Each structure stands twice: as structure tokens, then as C-alpha cells.
Amino acid sequence: MNNTQTLEASKKTQGSTQRLSGSEAVVKCLLAEGVDVIYGYPGGAIMPVYDELFKYQKEIHHVLTRHEQGATHAAQGYARISGKVGVAIATSGPGATNLITGIADAQIDSTPMVCITGQVGAHLLGSDAFQETDIVGISTPVTKWNHQITKASEIPEVLAKAFYIARSGRPGPVLIDITKNAQFEELDFEYTPCTGIRSYTPVPKLEVTAVEQAAAMINEAKKPLIVWGQGVILGKAEKELKEVIERAGIPSAWTILGASAIPTSHPLNVGMVGMHGNYAPNILTNECDLLIAIGMRFDDRVTGNLETYAKQAAVIHFEIDPAEVDKNVKTDLAVIGDAKESLSKLLPLLAKKTYPKWLNRFKELYQIEFEKVIDKDLNPTKEGLTMGEVMKELNKVTKGNAAIVSDVGQHQMIACRYAEFNQSKSNITSGGLGTMGFALPAAIGAKMATPEREVVAVIGDGGYQMTIQELGTIFQTKVPVKIIVLNNDFLGMVRQWQQLFFDKRYASTELVNPDFVNIAKGYYIEANRVSERKDLSEAVKTMLDHDGPYFLEVCVEKEDNVFPMIPSGASVSDIRLS
Amino acid sequence: METNKQLFTVSIYTENSVGLLNRISAIFQKRHINIECISTSVSEIDGVSRWTIVVFVSEEQIRKIIGQIEKQVEVIKAYYHTDEETIYQESCMFKIKSDLLFEDRQIQNIIKESNARIVTVNREFFVLEKSGRRSEVDLLYRELKPFGIMQFVRSGRISVTKQEMKITELLEAFQA
Ligand SMILES: Cc1ncc(C[n+]2csc(CCOP(=O)(O)OP(=O)(O)O)c2C)c(N)n1
Q1: Which of A476, A501, A571, B32 has its CA 20 to 30 A from that of A242?
Q2: Who lines ligand 1 at CB under 6 A?
Q3: What is the value of ipTM here, to two decimals?
Q4: CB neighbour list of residue A548: distance below 8 Å, 6 or more residues apart
Q5: Does CATH number 3.40.50.970 belong to domain A383-556?
């Protein structure tokens, strides 16, 4: 299919500009930004762009998801694993509103994404025309930036800005709404990438004195603790962080979105902080004398009760977004700027140190957690399967090289606690918004962005059914993702709260589930179910060995709970082991 | 936190673009904060808009809000000030029956003493305009109320700060 040549010929080319339709210009902009795959769903108001996508299908792979929410999560998965901007596209009205959950998720988790929506013709704006909805108004609070294009001539500049804003500084989602007339109209097309906007400072200038002060504080600390977040991954500062940790000898913990930036096996990696994080880093947050936060935002799921959070410690906050400094936790020193730059300036100023006694505290507490929780999760002696042992089997085969895409709930916490990671950008999960239904489509995007990597989705039976229709996308594209559903026939995490805090009144948390294996098979996806320990290891191996997408349902213990747990509103040091 | 609330005047310099009002007001809405008054206009710099928003909050809150306003792509710079740090004015208009103006001496005295200005007079009504502090406007309103006010309207606060706001330098730094 090569009508591009004839098309090319029919265009009046004048200097470096070309006469194009707005819709073709949209596709040219995507190409200029290096976009190779986009996720979307067509409809009336975006049809001219789809017509161009048809012509350019060799250059841009458009993936038809089964729901626009799936398109956003797929774009997010693509972005999270690759560091590139994910792109989703939809029609006006319901197509556009279906994007909102994914956009909100990308906003709170700082994921670079550009969403393009079609809109009714400019002459109809505000008239309640068919499938008109004020998507710019609706998406304003959940986008980093958004804009409506009503004239074809605006397309190149606005799309260039969209990509620049989405990926620069603290990344985030951008929505561009394009009226139908602007897609049909012609323009003189010329693409210049955006390199700056006068009202926008993506990366604040680093103050060297702040770095020097930080180094002095770190060098003097007796019991320092590092907590890093996704800022390290977004800022491509993994290497710098590792060097800082190793030189300064500081025990280092991570937030859920920071996971995998430093390998799990690193001797100074002391685990996850937060509500279902590890025992030692949570307890010792309230014992350290210096808390060094790097690229994290002190989410309430991390801090628990702020009144009792790290009150004894001095706090240094390395952060790119000035609005995050002193938002939740009062800092003694803020180092505002890009993590990679800050950490590389910090490194030579640090004294070479080790803290054997302090590090031992982590080991002691780990031992307690191991006996009370981890051992039971990973090496259960009871009859029912645990989510933890599924992760253990997975680790055995993947050897820490897979990317794990988890949904939201108990299985998510178990996956993040127990998955082993050797390389960065391997833990893809909905952290800030906690969006059930995220994992299946996100895994599609992640696998497409990095076909060379093993991508395994770990999902609960509840969340799975929120975007289960994306099995259709998997079948149609043959994208070889591996899907594990940990089926406890409950909305497990909510059931856990009901058990612990609502006297076991299981209001609407029990699920009567369909035959998941048959559903997968209905989509012609290889599928298997295990409910006995003796079959688990083999089943996991078969899944990973299979050449193509694969679905594995593991029937786990129905009423297991995830521990440790910081009850909501409690102090990090009141973390419970049972 | 409730106890140390006070009035703050927020001054924001922005690009002049569609939808920015929505974006900025959403930041207040998110925190369940009521905007006392808001006005927007051109500023001393060509193409740059100036916003004045008055809110009743704690300093802690306003500091966080300013951070969140400032990080919006089209916001150049945002500041907050207390009443002591600004020179501020509001303006208001009254529409009143004309016969009162001619027949009631008292009303003439009120107009004179309040430094209000008569904008227009016709056979049916006259329009009075007054600029000043909120308290002055309120006083005039109370004094005129017994005579019957046909219409009353008051603008949002506009203010300039005593301290300098270096927007031009900021914009020049970008060009460089
Ligand atoms: C879209 C959405 N709706 C509701 C919730 C609230 N919620 C959080 S966890 C959870 C239960 C998830 O159940 P399941 O997917 O079966 O996973 P499990 O906890 O059993 O592992 C619910 C309902 C949510 N996070 N997202």
C-alpha cells in the first residue's frame, strides 16, 4: 500500500513548508516527535485523523483498544517502561470522557502522555451539538496542560508544545482537543520542535550552596536514611543514586513508584516504605537522625500520620517541583532541581562512610518481619495458595528480569513487596490514583514499547474485570503479554479493611466470578488455572515459556491479609505485623 | 489552622490564554477554598495578564496554593501579600432615583462627604461611583440604603504591591 507517493506529489511543496490538511499535519507532528505507536478508538469527530492514520499505517502503529480508558493505560504503560511520551487518541464526547481516568492517573503519577481528542466543528462549539462535551474544561484539573485547536494553522505549534510540556521537567499528561474543521482545513505545514516556553520553568536552576549544605548534613549524620521515589527514574538518575548510596553507605528505601531504580538485591536497599511497605524502613523513619528524600512527594500512603512522621530527624528534600517542597513534610533543606544533576554534584562532596550498627538495625527488624510475615507469605505450610508464593515462583523463573505490571489491591502490594528487580522501570503500577483496571492495558503498552522484555501483569479478580475487554486487543495484536490473575473471589483489599476495621461486615466485596480460563480461551488466548501448590511452579514456567500471550489464573486463599500494615491515620512506627 | 486565617491578596502574572481562569480557580476549588473576589486585566507588560484574587486562608495554605498556581504552564509568576503589604482599592456603583438627589439635602451631603462621583443623571435615576477601601464602600452603602438603592454593584479588589515584582526581568531572562 503506497499511496503516500501519490499524495506527496499532489502536495504543493513550497520551501520547507508543505500544504497539508490539518489531519495529515497531526500525523506528521506525531512522526516528527518520534511516535511509533498510539492507542485509540475512532469516532465521528476524529475520523479525518483516522483516515490519515490509515495512510501512514506503515510509519505509525495504531492499536485499537476496546475502550478509551484502555488506550490511556496502554499509553501509560508504554511511557512508564520506555521513558518516552505515550499517545492516546479518541473521538469527542464519550470517547473523550472515557480518557479521564487514565489522564488523572498519569497526572498524579507524573507520566508523560499526550491525548488527542476530536471535537465538533468550531461553528458548533457551545451549542450542545451531537457528541459535544467540554473536554478541555473537564480535563483541566487533571492535566499538566490542555488546549483546544480550532484552526489548522495552530496544529504544528500546539502539538510541539504538547510533547515538550508532557515530557519536560516533572512529566505529565497533556490533552489537545481538535475541532473537526481544523482537521479538514489546509495549512502550510512546517514542524519546529518546542524548546522552551517563557512562562514555564521545567527544571529550576540548582543552587550549588544547597548541594553543599546537603553534603555537610549527610557527612555529619549518625543514622541517615534515604527514601527515593519515582523522581529518580523520571530523572534518569539511577546510576547517580547508586553511586551516592554506595559512597555514603546510607540505607535506602523506596516508595512504590520508586521501586526497581536500584536492584532489589543491593545490600543497601532496605525495602519499601509506606502503608504495606517493609517493617524496618517504616519503623526506622522515626529513628533516623537525617531523612534524605529524593524525587518523592511524601504521599499520605508513605507518611501515615504527619504529626508523628520523622519528627526527630532533619529532612533534606531533593525535588524538581518546588510546589512539593514543604507541602506535606516540613523540610530543613530543599535541594530544588533535576535529580541527576543534584546527585552528581553531591557525589564528590560526600565522605566515604559505612554505618554497620545502624544497618544492623534494619537487618534485625527485617528478621522480625521475615519470621512474622515474609516466611509465611513465601513458604506457606497451610493448604491454600498465597499470593506471595506466586511471586516467589515468578522470581525463580524471571530471575528479576521481568517487568511487573500490577493492578490495585492486595495482589499489588504483594507484587511490589516481593517482585525482584534487576533493572529500572520494571515496576509499573498505579500508585497515586490506585486505578483498578490499570494493569491489563498498561501491560500491553509496556510490552509493545519493549518487545525484548518479559512483561507480566499481576491482577486481582476484581480489577481484571474492569478492563477485561482488552483481551480483545491482545488477541488482535498478538502482543505476548503474560497475565496472572490472583483470584481470591473477593475485592480483597477492601475485604481486608472490612475485616480489620468494620467487624468483618463484608459489604459488597464478594465476587461471583465467571470462568476466567474460558473467557481467555474465547479470545483465543492460551490459558490455564492452578489451585494446588504442586502445580504452581510448572504452570508459571509454562506461561513464561509460551510463545505468545498467556493467561494464568491462580486460585489463592480467599481471606488472606496483607501485612505489614500501617492503619490509615496511624504513625509509621505503629506498623502492624498481624 | 482555622484560627490563623486572614485575607491574602494573590497577584498572578500570566499569558493571556483561553481556559486559564478555569485552571486557576480549580486550584482553590480542590482545597475547598472560597474566592472572595477576583479580577483580571492587562498588566504593565504587553501581552501579559494580571490577576488579583482575594482569599481568606492561613499563610501555610496560601504558600502551598501559590506553588501550585506557579507551576501551571502559562503562569509566569505568582505572589501573595497581606493587606499591609499592598495598596488596594475597590470600586462600586449605585443607581438611585433622581428625585432623591434634588429633593433630599441629606443625600447631597453624603455624596459630598464620601468623595463619591456622579457619573450620570437623567430624569429617572442617577449613577454614583466610588472607589476606595472596602470599609468606605460599605459605609456609603449603609448610608444610602435607607433612601432606596435601585441597583448596587461592587468590583473585585485591585491592588499594587509596595514591594517590587520583577516580572520584566523574569521575561527578559527567558529571552537570553
Ligand atoms: C476504579 C476503582 N474502584 C474502586 C477502588 C477501591 N478498591 C481498592 S482495592 C479494591 C479491591 C481490589 O480487588 P481485586 O482486584 O480483586 O484485588 P485484590 O485486592 O483481591 O488483590 C477496591 C475495590 C479502586 N482502587 N479503583
Answers
A1: A571
A2: A 407-411, 434-436, 460-463, 486, 488, 490-494
A3: 0.90
A4: A478, A480, A526
A5: yes
